[in-house]
Design goal:
heterodimer; A: about 450 residues; MetI-like fold; 6-stranded antiparallel beta sheet; 12 strands; B: about 280 residues; mainly alpha; about 80% helix
């Protein structure tokens, strides 16, 4: 090769620069188009107004509520009584006071830990806050009169005539109105997760439960203790473990049944739609349009139609998945069939095999890897789809999630179901990729 | 000797057939019992439902028919909702694709990324892919209020993971010679990616991008049902009110737009990657 002088290189560099510029022009135009489009979308979605409306505090509240619960100490001035209850619910009222509340309705002390103490006497309270002092507040002639230590009033303190509220730390809150006085103590964890509050099993340690389960001294005369413990857990009215487990099972059932059905309907139809197996182009055309039609209708519409016909439940979801994916899998399989190697089929035919034997030994082994990997991939993605169409009303865990989100005041239930869904999806993902690796050795390495 | 081998092969073949037969029978049993279980858990049974299967479609078609020409006037009425759904899908796919591109460049073995980064980025993509869109959408609707934005964010999140995996597979299959050439003339990492990788992967990226857009149109229509706006919200309202002709119009619009987008995208994809590589 000849040595190119510096001058020569400069001459050659010029056309290169121009062609690079030319080649960059189209991507630059595209990029500009995308930016313009996103700008349009910004106005179409009215993001400015949305950001103004967004309640980020709601999200923080949701997350904190998802991992913590609060115990209310309430004194009602009209009725003159006082009670300690988890989340203020009547059925979760403590019969014997917890050790951090002492006294009676007329005079009691609440120890919120780390030196935070509330003393209540009649219609007045004294809230001791470390590093700040004592806040005194009382109800006089229908007005709340509050005395605070000298200095600027901190942000966590809200003082008005009708309401007094103090929340010096996240986990401690005192509210005082003309009708009642409420002290909230937040604790980390999910309350009553294992057993209902009213059950005698509530609050027992694991060791105690084990010794109970093995003892012959029956808590409930109808059942052995271990059965009683299991059924109390399974039927926990607040968390509904049994109900949730059935819903999870329904969702997985929907995904698996739907995909299996789709694969077994799609495979024979794929033979009809493949040009190298079916010479009749009219029939081929019709079957392909059927694939496009059931796929195009979409799972959403199918599930809405099936809900009308079959009601709520896994059958509805399975059929919706089966119909949509018969189209998708049929299309994929017919493409795989059109790409097979003719020679193997001819070889099998040369040994005197009939039509079915040729299909069985010449064709099926060739498309089996595609069949298996697509099937597993669809099971995996249909687990997510089954959750979503469940939320539309087909049932399963998706419906449970939407219902708890709409009705529940406590977000820990929602958070629990979300975690279960994620665990389920991850497990299905893991199982499917493990099976894919096992069944198609040397196929996908990841 | 040959006879012994023949016997052995036949015995093996017999056992293999037995296993295949047994596993097929097992699968059939699982499917059948699954369907009977599903039918039992369903609020309506299979056989009663079967006769009612065409009732609902027939009912909405009849209602639409009764409307006569007024039925076609419903299409322009719902056009903004359809456009909103398409916008959700387009924005989500665009934003998702940008993140997917970054993630995929950081998780390809042949692009001289620090080896410790690759498995981390891959796990991140797995998690993004597996996380159900519905949950993100519902959470964001709670925080941001009912609007298309939560759906777009939720779909974009999933898209980043899903496209990222496909993109990184494309990246790993490129020809590395242009990269070596660019390195030899002193190109830095970004320049090598810009002039060595992007031109090679762009056709495949575009193909996957369009495929994802197709999927995302469906996903955003579904998310409309939980309050994300667009055609899904209109559909859930129409069904809730029992407005048959509106439901029929919305079904038809959704169906036609999905088919149109499918056709357009497969035409474009064929154009980008060539008919030979088209799948």
């Amino acid at each position: 090769m000849a040595v190119i002088s510096d001058q020569g290189a400069a001459v050659m560099a010029e056309p290169v620069r121009i062609s690079v510029k030319k080649a960059s022009a189209v991507p630059m135009l595209l990029l500009a188009g995308v930016v313009l489009y996103l700008f349009y979308a910004w106005t179409a979605f009215d993001i400015t107004a949305l950001l103004a409306r967004a309640q980020l505090s709601k999200g923080a509240l949701l997350i904190s509520d998802a991992v913590a619960y609060k115990t209310h100490v309430t004194k009602n001035f009209r009725r003159g009584d006082f009670e300690v209850a988890i989340e203020g619910e009547r059925h979760a009222t403590f019969k014997t006071l917890p050790d951090w509340v002492t006294g009676d309705a007329s005079k009691f002390t609440v120890d919120l830990g780390e030196g935070y103490v509330v003393r209540v006497e009649d219609k007045s309270l004294a809230f001791e806050v470390p590093d700040y002092g004592i806040i005194r507040s009382k109800l006089v002639d229908g007005k709340i009169v509050t005395q605070v230590p000298d200095g600027p009033v901190p942000e966590w303190l809200k003082i008005r005539d009708v309401k007094f509220e103090a929340r010096p730390t996240f986990s401690r809150r005192v509210q005082f109105t003309r009708a009642k006085l409420e002290i909230h103590k937040f604790q980390f964890g999910w309350e009553n997760f294992w057993f209902p509050f009213t059950s005698e099993l509530h609050g027992k340690s694991f060791g105690e439960l084990v010794s109970l389960a093995t003892s012959d001294d029956r808590l409930n005369l109808d059942q052995a203790n271990w059965q009683y413990i299991l059924s109390s857990f399974w039927g926990n009215p607040e968390w509904q473990h049994g109900h949730v487990a059935v819903a999870l099972f329904e969702t997985i059932l929907m995904a698996v049944l739907g995909t299996v059905t789709a694969a077994f309907c799609g495979l024979p139809l794929a033979f009809v739609a493949a040009s190298n197996f079916n010479p009749n182009s009219t029939v081929r055309f019709v079957v392909r349009r059927v694939f496009d039609f059931v796929r195009g209708i979409d799972m959403l519409i199918w599930s809405l139609i099936f809900i009308r016909a079959f009601g709520l439940g896994p059958l509805t979801g399975s059929l919706a998945i089966a119909f949509t994916d018969t189209g998708s899998l049929g299309k994929l399989f017919s493409e795989a069939l059109e790409n097979i190697d003719r020679k193997q089929v001819e070889g099998v035919g040369a040994t005197g095999a009939n039509r079915w034997q040729r299909y069985r030994f010449g064709v099926i082994p060739q498309i089996l890897p595609v069949f298996t990997s697509q099937f597993l991939y669809y099971v995996e993605s249909n687990t997510r789809s089954a959750t979503v169409i469940g939320a539309l009303g087909a049932g399963g865990i998706g419906l449970v999630l939407v219902e708890t989100m709409r009705t529940s005041r406590d977000w820990e239930n929602t958070f629990y179901i979300i975690s279960l869904i994620i665990v389920m999806v991850f497990m299905m993902d893991g199982a499917s990729s493990w099976l894919r690796r096992k069944l198609i050795a040397g196929g996908e390495s990841r | 000797m040959v006879e012994v081998m023949r016997q052995e092969v036949l015995a093996l073949e017999g056992r293999r057939r037995l296993y295949t037969g047994l596993s097929l029978a097992l699968l059939l049993a699982v499917v059948l019992s699954g369907y009977s279980e599903a039918s039992a858990l369903n609020s309506g049974g299979f056989l009663q439902g079967l006769s009612k299967f065409f009732d609902y479609p027939a009912q909405i078609v009849m209602q639409a028919w009764d409307q006569g020409w007024a039925f076609w006037a419903l299409f322009p009425k719902f056009l903004p909702a359809l456009i909103e759904t398409l916008n959700i899908a387009a924005v989500a796919t665009l934003i998702g694709a940008v993140f997917a591109m970054i993630l995929s460049l950081l998780s390809s073995r042949n692009l001289e990324v620090p080896p410790a980064v690759i498995p981390v980025v891959r796990r991140i993509m797995d998690i993004m892919r597996a996380f159900p869109e519905l949950i993100i959408a519902l959470f964001l609707i709670f925080v941001l209020g009912a609007s298309p934005v939560p759906a777009a964010i939720a779909v974009a999140f999933h898209t980043s993971g899903a496209l990222g995996k496909l993109f990184s597979e494309v990246n790993e299959n490129i020809d590395v010679k242009p990269l070596e050439g660019l390195k030899a003339v002193g190109g830095n990492w970004l320049q090598r990616v810009r002039f060595g990788v992007i031109p090679q992967v762009l056709p495949n990226y575009s193909s996957y991008f369009l495929l994802r857009f197709e999927i995302n149109v469906r996903a955003s229509a579904i998310l409309g049902f939980v309050g994300a706006g667009g055609i899904g919200t209109e559909l859930s309202r129409a069904i809730g009110w029992g407005a048959g002709s509106e439901t029929a119009a919305l079904f038809l619009m959704l169906f036609l737009s999905i088919v149109a987008i499918d056709q357009l995208s497969s035409y474009l994809r064929r154009h980008f990657v060539g008919a030979d590589n088209f799948s």
